[in-house]
Fold this sequence. Notes:
Layout: H1 2-23, E1 27-31, H2 39-53, E2 61-67, H3 73-86, E3 89-94, E4 97-98, H4 101-106, E5 111-114, E6 119-120, E7 126-128, E8 134-136, H5 137-152, H6 158-165, H7 169-194, H8 212-226, H9 229-232, H10 241-247, E9 253-254, H11 259-278, E10 284-286
Parallel strand pairs: 1-2, 2-3, 3-5, 4-6, 5-9
Antiparallel strand pairs: 1-10, 7-8
Organism: Pseudomonas quebecensis
Protein name: Serine dehydrogenasease
Pfam families: SDH_protease
Amino acid sequence: MASLDNHILMALGHYRSLVSQHFQCPVLAYAGPIHPAVLSAYVVAVEAIVAQSKSTDVQGRICILLATPGGVVEAVEKMVEVTRHHFTEVLFVVPTAAMSAGTIFCMSGDKIFMDYTSSLGPIDPQVPLENGNLVPALGYIDKVNELIEKSANNKLTDAELLMLQRLDLATLRRYEQARDLSVSLLKQWLVKYKFKDWATHSITNPGAPVTQIEKEQRAEQIAKDLSDNNRWHSHGRMIGIQTLTDGLKLKIEDYTNDSVLRQNLRIYSELLAEHAERQQSAFMLHYQ
């Protein structure tokens, strides 16, 4: 079995090298949920890549290949701070899906690369319960608001009244803070990184310069749309590239027609997932 693991690691290194050559920068692959417990390993990975980059001609840029069901937004904030401390240009590649907190993470990049099978998700932050399990915050908040509205209209059932009376206000406030932080970070990072090179309009009023206010307004609208549970209806809703570009007006780099890159990324991401499963690891970082 050790021999098989060694062959998998060799294959992972090979495909990581091919992806690195395509983007002309180091590659850091992350697969699994985003949680504060992974932060120390993430710091080690980024610092190792920085040390490797000093011996090459390519510095200042990193490509993060991301596959995640989501996680804790506070962990994302720290990961962005660590990454941006070392790199001025960050590219995100999503071969499969980067959901929830993973979507927020992608919005801190200068560019996001996806193909027609890739997905991002609604920015519904996950909050840890006392037992350590993660639950989507927006669903909890939406249900509470629904009960409050029914109460105001005298339509609350006895069972719903009992649920409302048992409501933990501290928990509700924690969920609201997670929601507000997610929206705030997404808006901040879109303007600072994703929109930094957006100088002129291409569709509405072509050629006209884009103002700082317009960047902030576009970022706010994207944040509002992605956090709208009434629009997506599900924490696990997979939002494809067409909806992101046409519906949300978010620029995505589409590599659908690059068959070589698509194949390399697909094999690389599948190998990462299989290796993590074989190792019974909750997450996988691959960078060397």
